[in-house]
Amino acid sequence: MTVVESAESREPESDEGGVREAAPRPVPSVDSADAYGELMPQTRRALLRRLAVAQAEGRAPSMMGAVVRGGRAVWTGARSSVDGEVPHGDVQYRIGSLTKTFVAVMVLRLRDEGLLRLEDPIGKHLAGVPAPEATIAQLLAHSSGLAAEARGPWWERTPGELRPERADLFGERPQRLAAGRRYHYSNPGYALLGALVEQLRDGESWGEVLRREVLEPLGMARTTLRPEMPHAGGWAVHPWADVMLPEPAQDTGLMGPAGQLWSTTEDLCRWAAFLLRGDARVLSECSVAEMRIPTVPPEGAGWEAGYGLGLQLVRVSGQRTGEGRRLAGHTGSMPGFLAALWIDPEEDVAGIALANCTSGVAISAVAADLVQITAEHEPRIPEPWRPLSGPVDEELLAVTGPWYWGANPFALRLRDGRALELVTLSGSGRTSRFRPEPDGTWTGLDGYYAGETLRVVRADDGSVSHLDLGTFIFTRGPYEPAEPVPGGVDPEGWRGL
């Protein structure tokens, strides 16, 4: 029995209780140099222990874990049930539904190129699909109402040839819920998104588009549609006995965009760095951040999980985080394999966990705990403050400072790249960041004003009169009679009792 097929033997950096901690191979930094340095010994030991407990209690044939911080891999660990077969960072595991995050990035690339809008109904671009009125955004966010699984026998364990045509993916009742009303996970929905990529890339396969437009720019040569040596074998572990059964590794055909990919911890460290910071060669930081915005309302008293545009969203408790740490990423499972990747943008940390077993390991919790351990042992060190780059626009500088919505005080701050930020000075009120637009306005990025337009209104002499933010008027003084306050100001002015 082998756990890893044709794996190279490597000398581990440390070997403690059967857990091998390997020195991370270089992963290109996505941004500036890591401000933290290497992880402290107590942090590394805690990460090692978490991986060891998960592998032992979950009875996984092998497991790998990794942590990304500051745009690079800072820790990797591995454990195997077979002596001499401890996997390393270049060993492939099947990553299942983590594939969906790659498909979502390709769709957003098409959006950013102007080839589609997220509000477009899928029927505008693909003919003969069920629920043609469901939007691309709804497919990305699993709110299209389409069935959870493909028609026919268990698609993850059977060859894709059983479903040769797109119509073969859906049964007699392909849509189970009304589009846009509720979150309902749909694997066939992502098969349609893969077909959408192919349609708008002139018939080129989604896998080839992924390789050329995403994987190659990010240096992810070991992420493939089919397994390539060295790779782990997939196993099922008997629930009541310590014995194993090999699982099939089928080519799922048209269902591939839902979970076909194989990858390595080294490649997934690059992917995590990208999901944290973006990469102009693939997708901008702003568009990547858009993927992390919840798109359907949570169900229940409070939200513990949600979904953005191709990314799962979870909230986990922690010692320092109060209401909980918010993570984005995805989990994945295919016969014989489990995978999870979670990022914490506020801490600039990601955790990755891979195992070659069908069930038994709480893989999502493992990856989340790797993030938690790193963030709580070594909280993020802020990057140094730096002044704006380039010459200062004096007219724009004059717009900054205190503003009032009625009697509520705010301040407008100038950020790099002509971006603006509205902050409250009273401890209450709606705040937002704004990106500049070519027409001289700004668009809200978050909070109540997300998508709303901010305009600087000038008087006849060219001086700044007021701000118009989605029809809300901000003036330089609180209810000044000379200012354009909607509804006017009482002529007797401010007074006491």
Automatic annotation (TrEMBL):
Ranges of Basic and acidic residues composition bias in the record: 7-23
Pfam families cross-referenced by the UniProt entry: Beta-lactamase, DUF7586
Signal sequence bounds: none
Region (Disordered): 1-35
Coiled-coil portions: none
GO molecular function: hydrolase activity
Keywords: Hydrolase
DUF7586 domain mapped to chain residues: 392-476
Beta-lactamase-related domain sequence ranges: 54-372
Protein's recorded name: Serine hydrolase
Annotated source species: Streptomyces albospinus
InterPro entries, per the entry: AmpC-like (IPR050491), Beta-lactam-related (IPR001466), Beta-lactam/transpept-like (IPR012338), DUF7586 (IPR056008)
